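Technical note accompanying the year-one report. For the benefit of new consortium partners, we illustrate the data format agreed upon in the data management plan: each record pairs a sequence with a structure-token string. No post-processing was applied to the example shown here.
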Amino acid sequence: GFCQMMSEQNPKYKIHHVRVYQNPDMEEQKIGCSTPERPTRRYIEAHEKLYKTEHDDRPLKPVATGRGVCNPKSQGEGRETCGGEKRGTCTQGNVCECQKGWTGPHCLASAGHDDIIWDEPETIKDIGFV
């Protein structure tokens, strides 16, 4: 089964998303991706060659909402159906349109956010306008 495949082959995976849980009642676990103690955005920008390809303009990109390629004849809940009718719809132009509360090119991710901005942008470039 799975364990045998892992030991005998060289499997490769694409990661769709990662969810991190933090306890808001514990001071050492601050909620957010780029806290003062762990300035993630600044680290990535300082080491941007590790986080982008030769075709990328910048290492941190906004999450796309819809516009992923889909098939209006497909059924179920997946990429080709934009997550299903509760998450998104496939337009006549074969691209996804996300329902409220869903994001990503194929509407497969919950559109959550952190109310606390730990890492304030320093320049207009930091928020994606160049």
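Partners are asked to follow this layout when depositing records. The chain is about 10% helix and 10% strand.
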